[in-house]
Specification:
The chain is α/β, with parallel strands linked by helices. The chain has helices at residues 11-23, 34-43, 60-70, 85-93, 106-118; strands spanning 3-7, 27-31, 48-52, 75-80, 98-101. It has 5 helices and 5 strands. The chain has a 5-stranded parallel sheet with strand order 2-1-3-4-5, sandwiched between helices. α1 (11-23) links the parallel β1 (3-7) and β2 (27-31). The longest helix is centred in the first third of the chain and has 13 residues, at 11-23. It starts with a strand and ends with a helix.
Length: 119
């Protein structure tokens, strides 16, 4: 299945996402630090990145920009507990394929991941 990078500064969210996606046979690489996630993405093939918008040092939007510079074809899903039209528009303009609102709904996440990967 897919190689997926997940970046979120909340450990419980990382564990939940890894559990949901691993059950679908995806290989999931979780990170809580922006720099580590970016460095990993530069050295490894990825099908999809799932990025939280609100992080510690950078925004998920900034991480999205970095990842897309290195891999323009990378598919991305943004996560947020604080949805706004502005962040949704910005994320989609920078190449995110989907936008999920926390708390994460298992079925919605599975469907959006499948849809983004199928594109």
């Amino acid at each position: 299945m897919a190689e997926i990078l997940v970046l979120d500064d909340v450990p419980d969210a990382l564990m939940l996402l890894k559990k949901i996606l691993s059950r679908k046979q995806h290989s999931v690489h979780t990170f809580s630090e922006e720099e580590e996630a970016i460095a990993f993405a530069e050295k490894h093939y990825l099908d999809l990145a799932i990025l939280d918008i609100k992080l510690k040092k950078m925004s998920g939007i900034q991480v999205l920009e970095q990842l897309k510079k290195n891999n323009p074809a990378l598919k991305v899903i943004m996560l947020t507990g604080y949805p706004t039209i502005e962040t949704a528009r910005e994320a989609l303009a920078l190449g995110a394929g989907e936008y999920c609102v926390k708390p994460i709904d298992k079925t919605e996440l599975e469907e959006k991941v499948a849809a983004v990967l199928a594109r």
